[in-house]
Amino acid sequence: MENLKDIVKFLDTYLKTDEIEDRSWNGLQVEGKARVNKIIFAENAGKDAFKKALEKGGDLIVVHHGILWKNTNPSFRNWHKERISLLAKKEVSLYASHLPLDRHRKVGNNAQLLKLLGAVIKKEFLLYENKHISWIGEFKKPVRPEEIIKKLNSKLNTKCVSLLFGKKKIKTIALCSGSGGSASFNEALEKEVDLYLSGESPDVYTLAKDARCNAIFAGHYATETLGLKALMEVVKNKLKVKTLFIDIPTGL
């Protein structure tokens, strides 16, 4: 069992929470009981995750997508009040890490995607508020895009959408977990990588075809579970708490 304040301090420091501006209010979003015995990890904050966390005896929930965003109304009313009440009744805390978890060099979603595929980090990729949030990776030996798709579908339990208009063997890959939008795709074109990988697909079919570029979209949810699982292993080894990952796929 650990003190909540000590856990929050560890997470903030390890994830370098203060190093990047974000739409998410990263860090402790809901404060519950002072002592934590079990931490639940889940992709999205919401009723489904909260109910399952309570069923599993969680004292703290760590998520990638929290409930407090700078472009939304923060008032605790209506449906928002209902889900907050689930946590308040049992004094369960909520911690969110959005971009800090995406960009972390070790446990980050993007770093973990490269690790899953067998590529190594070579360069920074995709600037946001003057900080990079992802990476360009390189394979030791070129691989066929079909092999990458097969591995992603199998390991992430997803169904990739692919635009294979480029090279038949992949050496370099730029990626952005979740949703990188057209900005990250355009930067990948400028960097002349062999493959662009993300979760959601912007409307880039014609652009990819004209530019003779390969692109794979493996699902927003699927590409953002690896970071949480890797972070959970670090927490389990560093802190005296129980941990559990709850999988709640969205199909998106």
Short characterization:
With 252 residues, this protein is α/β, with parallel strands linked by helices. The chain is built from 9 helices and 13 strands. The protein has helices at residues 4-14, 47-55, 78-90, 99-103, 109-117, 145-155, 181-190, 205-210, 226-238; strands spanning 2-3, 27-30, 35-36, 38-44, 60-65, 93-96, 119-128, 131-143, 161-164, 170-176, 195-198, 214-217, 242-246.
Fold and architecture overview:
With 252 residues, the chain is of the alpha/beta class. It folds into two domains: 2-101 and 225-246, NIF3 (NGG1p interacting factor 3)-like (Udp-n-acetylmuramoylalanyl-d-glutamate--2,6- Diaminopimelate Ligase, Chain: A, domain 1, 3-Layer(aba) Sandwich), CATH 3.40.1390.30; 102-220, NIF3 (NGG1p interacting factor 3)-like (Udp-n-acetylmuramoylalanyl-d-glutamate--2,6- Diaminopimelate Ligase, Chain: A, domain 1). The chain is 35% helix and 29% strand. It has nine helices and 13 strands. The chain has helices at 4-14, 47-55, 78-90, 99-103, 109-117, 145-155, 181-190, 205-210, 226-238; strands spanning 2-3, 27-30, 35-36, 38-44, 60-65, 93-96, 119-128, 131-143, 161-164, 170-176, 195-198, 214-217, 242-246. It has a six-stranded mixed sheet. A five-stranded mixed sheet has the order 2-6-5-4-13, with helices on both faces. A two-stranded antiparallel ribbon has the order 1-3. Strand 5, helix 3 and strand 6 form a beta-alpha-beta unit. Helix 2 (47-55) packs parallel to helix 3 and helix 5 (109-117) packs across helix 9 (226-238). The longest helix is centred in the middle third of the chain and has 13 residues, at 78-90. The two termini are 36 Å apart. The model has no long low-confidence stretch (mean pLDDT 96).
